[in-house]
């Protein structure tokens, strides 16, 4: 009986655990680049000014080469959002990279250079998967984006 109680208790904790929802954004994507694993979502909301997956993947590879990185996969999930983003200190930002989930959020609000912000967040991703410094003072941030 004690064993049954322990098993049921464990199952209850597993069933009640919060789902992994990737910081509230999920893992869905509209397109994927098969060479890099780069995924994008909501780019169509930008209309005619939206960079294509091909454009973003080309920039991703150019950043990789510039920084001297060898690893490109798995690619990040890049999501366009129509909301204000904040960093971990509460400051407003145009983009945010989440290491858990390998997700880059790009805000459209008052953002005059969407591709610039995408490139910046992709540098965070590439630095992370290549075990390089993610500090903004690292050389790859000033030379490659």
What are the key terms here?
5-stranded mixed β-sheet, Zincin-like, globular, 4 helices, alpha/beta
Task: Describe the SSE topology.
Layout: H1 2-16, E1 31-32, E2 39-41, H2 53-67, E3 77-81, E4 85-86, E5 92-93, E6 95-98, E7 103-107, H3 114-129, H4 139-143
Parallel strand pairs: 2-3, 3-7
Antiparallel strand pairs: 1-2, 4-5, 6-7
Helix pairs in contact: 2-3
Overview of the structural elements:
The protein has a single domain (27-143), classed as 2-Layer Sandwich (Zincin-like). The chain has four helices and seven strands. The chain has helices spanning 2-16, 53-67, 114-129, 139-143; strands at 31-32, 39-41, 77-81, 85-86, 92-93, 95-98, 103-107. It has a five-stranded mixed beta sheet with strand order 1-2-3-7-6, covered by helices on one side. The protein has a two-stranded antiparallel ribbon with strand order 4-5. A hairpin with a 6-residue loop joins β1 and β2 (39-41). α2 (53-67) packs across α3. It is globular and about 35 Å long. 26% of the residues are buried.
Q: What separation lies between the terminal Cα atoms? A: 62 Å
How many structural domains are formed by the residues?
1
Provide the low-confidence segments as ranges.
Answer: 10-15
Shape annotation:
globular
Q: How many individual β-strands?
A: 7
Estimated radius of gyration: 18 Å
The secondary-structure class comes to alpha/beta
Order of helices and strands: HEEHEEEEEHH
How many separate helices? 4
Determine the fraction of residues in helical runs and give it as a percent range. Answer: 25-40%
CATH hierarchy class name: Alpha Beta
Instruction: Report the CATH topology name.
Output: Zincin-like
Mean of all residue-level pLDDT scores:
88
Strand content: 15-25%
Strands of the largest sheet, in order across it?
A: 1-2-3-7-6
